[in-house]
């Protein structure tokens, strides 16, 4: 099995800057829709325990 990866990472690390850039590219209808579902999207954010992350990583390593 092959593993793939990217050599360059083009992600924006600053969340506030990313939100600002994303909202600049929206037209009026999209902005209204985004603002109407923003609270629901925030509820979907999960903050797993560190133990859970380690268990997932251990499981992933065991599959190699």
Summarize the structure.
The radius of gyration is 18 Å and the shape is elongated. The protein has 64 residues and is mostly helical.
Descriptive notes:
It is a single chain. With 64 residues, the protein is mostly helical. Helix content is 61%, strand content 0%. It has helices at 15-24, 28-43, 50-62. It is elongated and about 50 Å long. The N and C termini lie close together (9 Å). The relative contact order is 0.06. The mean pLDDT is 78.
Please specify the SSE layout and strand pairing.
Layout: H1 15-24, H2 28-43, H3 50-62
Strand content: under 5%
Shape: elongated
Helix and strand string, N-terminal first? Answer: HHH
User: Compute the gyration radius: what is it?
Assistant: 18 Å
**Residues in helix, %:** 55-70%
Low-confidence stretches: none
Q: Structural class of the helix and strand makeup?
A: mainly alpha
Report how far apart the termini are: 9 Å
Total number of strands = 0
The largest β sheet comes out as: none
Number of helices, counting only DSSP H or I runs of 4 residues or more: 3
Mean pLDDT: 78
